[in-house]
Amino acid sequence: MSARTTKPHEIVERALELSRSDGCVVIADEHSSANLRWAGNALTTNGVTRGRTLTVIATVDGAQGTASGVVSRSAVTVDELEPLVRAAEAAARGAGPAEDAQPLVTGVDPSPEFTEAPAETTSAVFADFAPALGEAFARARTGGRELYGFANHEMVSTYLGTSTGLRLRHDQPNGTLEINAKSPDRTRSAWAGRSTRDFKDVDPAALDAELAVRLGWAERRLELPAGRYETLLPPTAVADLLIYQFWSASGRDAAEGRTVFSKPGGGTRVGERLTELPLTLRSDPHEPGLESAPFVIAHSSGGDQSVFDNGLPLSATDWVREGELHRLTTSRHSAGLTGLPTAPGIDNLILDGGEDRSLEEMVAATERGLLLTCLWYIREVDPATLLLTGLTRDGVYLVENGEVTGEVNNFRFNESPVDLLGRAAEAGRTEKTLPREWSDWFTRAAMPALRIPDFNMSSVSRGV
Fold first, then answer.
1. 334 and 459: one domain?
2. DSSP 313
3. Does 1 map to a domain?
């Protein structure tokens, strides 16, 4: 039997039946994707892909503790199952005791749809979007601009079974849209992106209109030196910075004195105020429009993620609550080490608590400052302060007396997202956004624009 003719739940059950280890977790991920690409106001390629990845996690008890072995393979058929299971068991027996060992999760009600066929995406997801994109091409051509970009839609159906009786399933749709508009001489460029579950809530015409305005702003060019500027960070830039903060919020690392969330002298900064604004940074697997897996899916152990936590239920979690640091990410193991509550990472991130003001309204209230489009090439400089560096991209605009008066050069920045929260003077309306830098790994985010009185543009960049 081929991988495609064997039902995912059947292959999970068969792998569990073959297991000879003390504990076993099997994760089957059914992938499908559809995409469109375009350049110079014309479609260039499109395609659909499908595949399966099977992960077997074997646990073996010993006198010194419990060891784990993890093996993942693609396109596994029934005939290849036993070698895969044996390989995971051999890996466990050859490993030392796992530091994060915990009893496998029990007592979670099975997913009613566990035995149903996986969800799949097809090119039909673009049925309404593609014609609207064609109309946007025509408008752009008439307006003297060129559109480049891509649209991608993925569906992953995850089936998780364990020797302790868990039978869970989650379907995760994920869509991204990125469009660049360029002037014919390529001296001006503007970017817009969206995250979507089904491409029914994205409007190419509206995006093209937004890009046309930005290219118009760039017709006047000014040069500014490096320095600190009042800066309006749009939601996409805020998302990129705070996602990195979220990834860096390890409870164990903080307790061991290695991060910006470590308290001088020992312990963590949980309970400390990070910002005077009443902002809440949170995750919720059931957030409307940003839904993510409501249980832990861990293909490997590392940091505050543990394969022993597979299937552990997830619930809404406030990481920062009304300005105060409230939670750091922990597995059951690292929670036990640190004394912090168990709080596994969740695959979405929302910042709210700002004023009900749009980015346009924040621009109108700006006497003089910079308006960014997005950030890219973000890298960590100092984990002790979470100092990051990166570049602006595809449009930095000068705002004077409430109006955008031209485009300025790009910059390299040096900032810590934790410091930025502390210095933010204003937060606007929270809206769903696509983080540009991290869109390959993290797409479910909702953020407000932030006003930073003294954003550090450390040097001038000559990139477009």
1. yes
2. B
3. no
Domain count, the chain: 2
Mean pLDDT throughout 325-329? Answer: 98
pLDDT beyond 80 at 3 = no
- pTM given for the model: 0.96
Q: How far is C-alpha 332 from the chain's CA centre?
A: 23
- Domain shared by 267 and 127, yes or no: no
For the chain, count helices (H), then strands (E): 9, 20
Listed residue (162, 41, 68) closest to 106, CA to CA:
162
User: Taking 90 as the threshold, does the pLDDT of residue 119 lie above it?
Assistant: yes
Q: In terms of domains, do 106 and 209 share one?
A: yes
From 214, 245, 262, the end of a domain falls on 214
- Non-local (6+) Cβ contacts of 297 within 8 A are 27, 158, 160, 170, 310
- Average pLDDT of the segment spanning 168-190: 96
Question: What digits encode the pLDDT tens for the residues 190-199?
Answer: 999 999 999 9
pLDDT of residue 5: 63
> Smallest Cα–Cα separation from 282: which of 176, 335, 194, 353?
353
At residue 462, does pLDDT exceed 90? no
Tokens of 141: 């051509």
d(CA 311, CA 295): 5
Q: Which domain holds residue 89?
A: 8-214
* 287 token code pair: 């957030």
What is the tens place of the pLDDT at every residue in 45-77? 999 999 999 999 999 999 899 999 999 999 888
Only one residue has tokens 């036993």, namely: 82
Distance CA(386)–CA(376), nearest Å, equals 17
The secondary structure of 173-240 as a DSSP string is EEEEEEEEEE-TTSS-EEEEEEEESSSSS--HHHHHHHHHHHHHHTTSEE---SEEEEEEE-HHHHHH
Q: Are residues 174 and 237 in the same domain?
A: no
Q: What is the mean pLDDT of the chain?
A: 96
Same-domain status, 132 and 19: yes
CATH number at residue 47: 3.30.2290.10
**In terms of domains, do 129 and 228 share one?**
no
Percent of the chain past pLDDT 90, that is, above it, reads: 96
Residue 2 lies in a domain: no
What's the confidence (pLDDT) of residue 152?
98
Are 433 and 373 in a shared domain? Answer: yes
368-382 and 227-233 as β-strands: parallel, antiparallel, unpaired? parallel
Residues 314 and 208 occupy one common structural domain:
no
Domain end point (choices 214, 234, 267): 214
* The residue type at 430: T
- Are 448 and 302 a contacting pair, CB within 8 Å? no
Helix axes 204-217, 129-142, angle to 10 degrees: 30
